[in-house]
Specification:
Blueprint: E1 34-39, E2 52-53, H1 63-66, H2 68-71, H3 76-83, H4 89-101, H5 108-111, E3 113-119, E4 126-130, H6 160-167, H7 171-186, H8 189-203, H9 212-237, E5 256-267, H10 276-279, E6 281-286, E7 299-307, E8 312-321, E9 325-333, E10 344-347, E11 352-360, E12 368-384, E13 392-402
Antiparallel strand pairs: 1-2, 1-3, 3-4, 5-6, 5-13, 7-8, 8-9, 9-11, 10-12, 11-12, 12-13
Helix pairs in contact: 4-7, 7-9, 8-9
Amino acid sequence: MSIRERSVWTVRPRSRVTRSTLRLPTRVTRGKSSHWEGALSDFRPDWVGTFQRKSNKLSDDRSQLEALVPVMQLPDDQLLAALEPHLDVDAFLDFWITELIISHADGYARNTNNFYLYFDPDTGRMNFIPWGIDSIFHVGNRAAPWEERPPPEILWEEGVLAHRLYRHPTMGPLYLERLPLLLDALWDEDALLARANEYHALLSPYVVDANREAFEGEVDRVRYFIRSRRDALQNALARPPPVTDDLLRDPWCVDQIGTVQATFATTWGNLAEQDPFAAGTGTLTLDPAVDPTLPPITRVGSKSGYDEQGRQNVIQVVTWHDPNIALVLNLTVANPADLAPGMSLPLDWLESSGHIFKVIFQPGADPEVSILGLVGDGVLYLHEAGTEAGDGVVGTVDALVYESIW
């Protein structure tokens, strides 16, 4: 029996959990529905602003998200009743546990990252949808780059929903009860190994000799994870339930170090050009505080296009500083539809974002590349733009520069 079917919040085991009982939205309706991407986002005051709208982009209504913030601050005896109108709690429980089973460490439960939200227009309630699962099936329980130490093997609770629900006197036991049921229902070693072998056979002919050893090693790692995951979780479940007193981490915070203004005039599709000074023109004014040692600008160029490797829409303003230094103002636009004349895009690290790279060239050596700063809290304005080859891309940038966190 699922939580949604209960008249009161009690812990009762499901008689059987199968793949068909896992609930994801079966349709996505335009109009009154809303769809969001979570990228280092959560239902906390300093985190809710980073959700990126994926539908109804002309609307500035964020009330469905913001309504969860005060709910998450309620005491346990009020939490579940207050959550019910906003969240399919039972479906979230399945989502949360599935992230753990497949070791999606860069997802919501462990990093408040890489997930979608869909608000059903009929119920107004929120559903989580998996996203960005390009870093899963990790062997072992090691600390992630953003962690001081690894979390308990069967408990990820960096997201405020997971954090509050595990500590809830009803939901914590239900989580521990549900985990082995879902593991039994979802983790079919034979089927997963067969799929891994199928993909191995598909990709293997295209792997160059120089990468063969690394490729086979990664495939073996995936196979090992599939074979060992059930035992690892069951062994952890056999121990006493995890008890943690960890606090949720603070929001990411960086200091402003200056300002940048730039103009560019180029054409779409010339990103691969080796000479940016022949590909387009531009100007760049960078606050000296960003890099006091930088020599004067001697040339400025610009180029734009789709970056196949990074899978991004990119506009670059490039400056040359004698004798051997280049700066690259690298701007990315998330939605190609936004590359249109008259568009004014916020540099908010969601709709569009920017970095300033410093490249030092030395004879006989690879260029030395560093990040001078992150570009945000400003505007990218497009006088002309398009995504067909040869379309004019002309515009301006006016923004703040923040210290790099990388």
